[in-house]
Amino acid sequence: MPSFASDLLNWYDRHARRMPWRVMPRDRQAGAQADPYHVWLSEVMLQQTQVATVRDYFLDFASKWPAVEDLANALSEDVMKAWAGLGYYSRARNLKKCAEKVAFELDGKFPYSASGLQQLPGIGPYTAAAIAAIAFDEPVAVVDGNIERVISRCFRIETELPAAKPEIRDRTQALLDHRRPGDFAQAMMDLGATICTPKRPACALCPVSAHCEALKAGDQ
Predict the structure, then answer these.
(1) pLDDT of residue 57
(2) Pairs from 84-88 (Cβ < 8 Å, separation ≥ 24)
(3) 67-104 pLDDT, tens per residue?
(4) How far is CA 94 from each of CA 12, 41, 198, rounded to the nearest angstrom?
């Protein structure tokens, strides 16, 4: 029987959502690398904000400040003005502080590991794992709300959150494809956002339905 990861990635290779910050799987397999600056910028914007809203903001920021050094040298008031409408202005302030630290103290290079990324302003465990996996292919579990739902259903985890978080993280870590950790993380995000939704999940279309204990038990 094919593995969870292979079933998931085969689906992702065909159905990955196109996003301005994402390197598509075919391009990644051809050797293209995700831009750490773009991954970081999008992940900070996506905190508590829908993808549809973030697209235009991301394109605007990337146009105004194409590299982390540009954002670091920008006027704070210009950054705040460009951020207007995204809410949670602490994110924008930390965005500026993080850009300054990377540009002025780290020679414009983001740390390669999740542990190193967590030392930067505004980057918590989830964001650090997402950047490390997507930008640097570190085989680290990336777990957001969508992925928590996917894993909870697949393994029929009945423990309530947040108590279930350690088990969910361990399960995700055990499943991930070490050859394609960035694609695996993004595939899980897409699966939770488009198929394994909170209400009326599209189980008939799910690429990993054969691995889902909740579906087998009829209580997804």
Answers:
(1) 96
(2) 85/57, 86/45, 86/49, 86/53, 86/54, 86/57, 87/48, 87/49, 88/47, 88/48
(3) 999 999 999 999 999 999 998 889 999 999 999 999 99
(4) 32, 11, 31
Q: So what's the pLDDT on residue 48? A: 82
Tokens standing for 144?
Answer: 């957001």
Spell out the residues 6+ positions from residue 128 whose beta carbon is closer than 8 angstroms to its own.
114, 115, 117, 118
Alpha-carbon torsion angle 48, 54, 60, 64, nearest 10: 40
Exposed/middle/buried for 52, CB within 10 Å: 0-12, 13-18, 19+? exposed
The C-alpha angle with vertex 141 and arms to 179 and 14, in degrees rounded to 5, equals 55
- Distance CA(42)–CA(19), nearest Å, equals 10
Beta carbons within 8 Å of 124's beta carbon, 6+ residues apart? 118
Catalytic-role residue among 43, 100, 138, 148: 43
138 is annotated as an active-site residue: no
**1 pLDDT exceeds 90?**
no
Mean pLDDT of the chain, nearest integer:
95
Contacts for 112 with CB less than 8 Å, ≥ 6 apart = 132, 136, 138
Cβ-proximal residues to 13 (8 Å cutoff; 6+ apart), any chain: 25, 26
Query: For the chain, what is the largest distance between any 2 Cα atoms, rounded to a whole number of angstroms?
Result: 56
